[in-house]
């Protein structure tokens, strides 16, 4: 007689991995690889987006410490496959532990000592470009940040991770740019002067984009992002009457009309703006700044943060008085207000969850299936909201 297979428990295969919330959708802790000199005895990781009762972990997201990331480099596809095929956390951690053990034995620990040619070559290369172009150099000389200034005086940095065989082997690069930056080097020799020149060329390609976005940040009420990185092409701006506009620019065509324009606010206030955007598309002038084109097409003057009616332009939730509401699982940046009162003189915005909680506490609220029918907390006009997004 065959015995039923024994179901693995998470505690038995990964005793240092524990849930971080009551819903058991996120777990965090450590796994221990095969002991190896100069490598940590335990490696931190976090897995979130776990759906209790789901057949696989296909939708889960894995975060790991830098040491584990280095060990798993090049294994992204295999990890995605393991998540998709694992029916439980325990099964996934068995697969992950086996993968980490095999990689730990196959890859020697990194050596801290680099060949003498590395140091002499790096010294010569830095001298060639000048120390004014060096923003940061790590203590072990494995990481170098190059600094460059564009024609508008904006400062930018390019992070280089230098391999021990530099300059024979090119560095890996990371930059805060709206488009991917790919380094092209001649085989067998990498010159920092060439790297810097390629970076400056990439900066020149984004001048129109940054000019328009900087002008918008300076002369309009930008709700988000609050501190935009240079890679961000998205803006959400206040238009007044509790209406905002979210838009994204194309880095390849920064002066063209944004393909993604989304109005947020009361339907009565949004409708005329949406109609003007459709009717006045011909007014868009590619040679003009984004702000000027928006004002021409929408036939409005964009309010500025200073001097604007803060209550009218505010995008914060009128119940919790915050813009971002933390997600139930604690993941992500949180939800923005996404429900507005359709009474035009009011137009107040709310988080869906805040409004659902408010209406559920009101005895006059009616419910039909997953929709609540109640009154706006501010103007008492009828308002509806679905209990699930």
From TrEMBL:
GO terms for molecular function: ubiquitin protein ligase activity; zinc ion binding. One of its GO terms (cellular component) is Fanconi anaemia nuclear complex. The keyword DNA repair does not apply. Keywords: Metal-binding, Zinc, Zinc-finger. Residues 317-380 form the RING-type domain. SMART domains: FANCL_C (SM01197). Transmembrane segments: none annotated. Signal peptide: none annotated. It holds the Pfam family FANCL_C. The keyword Metal-binding applies. GO terms for biological process: interstrand cross-link repair; protein monoubiquitination. PANTHER family: E3 UBIQUITIN-PROTEIN LIGASE FANCL, UBIQUITIN LIGASE PROTEIN PHF9 FANCONI ANEMIA GROUP L PROTEIN. This is RING-type domain-containing protein.
């Amino acid at each position: 007689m065959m015995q039923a297979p024994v179901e693995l428990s998470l505690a038995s295969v990964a005793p240092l991995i524990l849930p971080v919330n009551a819903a058991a959708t996120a777990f965090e802790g450590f796994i221990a690889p095969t002991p190896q000199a100069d490598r940590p005895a335990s490696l931190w990781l976090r897995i979130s987006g776990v759906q209790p009762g789901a057949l696989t972990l296909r939708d889960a997201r894995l975060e790991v410490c830098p040491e584990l990331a280095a060990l798993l480099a090049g294994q992204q596809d295999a990890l995605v496959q393991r998540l998709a095929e694992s029916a439980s956390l325990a099964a996934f951690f068995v697969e992950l532990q086996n993968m980490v053990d095999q990689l730990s034995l196959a890859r020697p620990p990194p050596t801290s000592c680099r060949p003498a040619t590395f140091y002499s070559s790096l010294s010569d290369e830095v001298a060639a470009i000048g120390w004014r172009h060096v923003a940061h150099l790590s203590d072990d000389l494995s990481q170098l940040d190059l600094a460059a200034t564009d024609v508008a005086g904006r400062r930018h940095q390019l992070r280089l991770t230098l391999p021990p065989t530099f300059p024979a082997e090119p560095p890996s690069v990371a930059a805060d740019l709206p488009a991917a930056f790919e380094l092209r080097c001649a085989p067998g020799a990498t010159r920092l002067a060439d790297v810097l020149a390629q970076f400056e060329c990439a900066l020149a390609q984004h001048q129109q984009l940054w000019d328009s976005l900087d002008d918008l940040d300076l002369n309009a009420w930008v709700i988000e992002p609050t501190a935009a990185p240079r890679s961000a092409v998205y803006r959400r701006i206040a238009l007044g009457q509790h209406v905002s506009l979210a838009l994204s620019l194309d880095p390849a065509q920064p002066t063209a009309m944004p393909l993604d324009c989304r109005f947020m606010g009361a339907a009565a206030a949004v409708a005329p703006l949406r109609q003007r955007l459709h009717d006045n598309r011909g007014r868009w002038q590619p040679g003009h700044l984004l702000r000027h084109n928006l004002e021409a097409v929408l036939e409005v003057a964009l309010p500025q943060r200073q001097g604007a009616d803060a209550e009218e332009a505010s995008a914060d939730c009128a119940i919790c008085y915050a813009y971002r509401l933390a997600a139930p699982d604690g993941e992500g940046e949180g939800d923005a207000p996404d429900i507005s009162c359709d009474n035009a003189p009011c137009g107040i915005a709310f988080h869906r969850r805040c409004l659902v909680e408010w209406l559920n506490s009101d005895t006059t609220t009616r419910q039909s299936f997953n929709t609540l029918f109640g009154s706006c907390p501010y103007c008492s006009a009828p308002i509806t909201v679905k209990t699930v997004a």
